Amino acid sequence: MTHSSASEVTIQDFDPSVHPKQMSQLGALEVVWERDLSSANARLLTVQSVDGVLEGCALLTARSAGAYVKISSVLACSEQQRKRVVSEVLNVAQRQRLASVKWELWTEDPQHFAVAQALGFERLPSPRRAGQDAGSAPVVGLVHWLHPAQYLQAPHYQQSENFTCAAVASLTAHHETSSIQTLEELRIAELLLWRQATNFMACEPIELGLTLTQRWPQSQVKVWLDTDQPVMVDYYPEAERDWREILQRQSRLRAQAEGLDISTQRLGIGEIKDAVANGARVLLLVSLDKMLGFDVPHWVLCHGVTGTAKNPVLVIEDSWVNQSSSESWVDATCLPVVPEELDVMSVLESQRYRAALVLT
After folding, report:
1. Is it the case that residue 93 has pLDDT exceeding 60?
2. Which among 64, 204, 320, 324 is least buried, having the fewest CB atoms inside 10 angstroms?
3. 300, β-bridge pairs
4. DSSP assignment of 283-319
5. Can you give the pTM of this predicted structure?
């Protein structure tokens, strides 16, 4: 527990058995207060008057390994106190050297918008969802970058199947999650691209690279993969690996015949940062273990940079929203991750390889 010098601001771990009841005196609790936040790194920031009267609070959550904090709910007895609460969250983020503060809104509340605008928050593009219940997600997402940020401002599109992350990352990199007109057409594009690139069920890097050169011939694709062995197979039982290995060998033969640019060197995290800063998009294969607690291979899109020259931060887009830990699309879009964290999560399986596709 920490206190400000005036002993008016307190931050503590969120206690679902105590805090919702205590905070309800400030106003009606939004749905997020009733969810299971045990995996959301939940904390509660409260502002009290000098005589101990509760004036406002913020429920704070964040995905593990992300360099941000998210305001899931703000309650206050006045607009002035609401602004004070959000300002204190910004102060906390600065002290912790985070890259951004996000704010999810469950209603189009003009009072919240007024506070957000006054404090320098930007509105995130509205998300696009295929076949999902919009009522279970916040209607607005806001972000305040604590340092200048250069990134792809695209609407978040949550993958419609648990195996189509590579397809969504690729469509996002080429602006097609924005430009494809209808959700039905977008979902069709997602599934067709996955079907073309898949090694069942996942998309391995070389076949993915071949698919992207065919789908977007104007885009230059370079595959970085520092192993010559089949990848993404440790996650399957031994009996399920043989035929996938055959398919991957065939992909390598096709790549050689078609002249796909492949490097057998490891692409460094610093090189990824430099490439993105110069306008490239990088599809990076990561394990979700550090962020979400399950070790599965998953493609994310590195598309932005923020932070400082001394302490840079990469901005990624993740098409997976882990609803079981009560996160929302606001967590997964424009997600800042420090290079050290990304370095660890992007070395996979017993071979300890890194797979990345650089698109220019």
Report:
1. yes
2. 324
3. 284
4. EEEEESHHHHS---EEEEEEEEEEE-SSSEEEEEE--
5. 0.95
